[in-house]
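User: Can you help me understand a structure? I only have the sequence.
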Amino acid sequence: MTTRRRSPEVLVCSAVAFGGALVFFAVGLVLWRTSGDADVLKLPSFVALVELPVAACLLLGLRFVHYPAMVVFVLVALLHLVIVLADGPVWARVASGMLSAVHIYGVVLLNTGPARERLGGPR
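Assistant: Let's start by predicting it. Here is the structure, written out as tokens:
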């Protein structure tokens, strides 16, 4: 039985999706505890519901998730950039800026040759 070795690029992209969702949810929890308004958890919860299945599919190496993962990463990165430009605590805006950069890095990794070979795409 031959096993396909996991590409480190795909593993890092899975970690970006999983870690990014958890960090954003943690930021939402801290904002909720400081402001007392539970509405701040709506967006992090939605992002986690979208990103966690993407992380699982990337970890499993499902070929159909290559382009949807890139779309999710770009949209989440743009969302974090909007948060950076909005009003809010400086620490939350800095965290969103870092998460935006990490998601763009995930898009770059998904466009590398080994990730495309592992997940499919144009050859």
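Now, to help you interpret it: Residues 8-35 form the longest helix (28 residues). The chain has a mean pLDDT of 91. Let me know which part you'd like to focus on.
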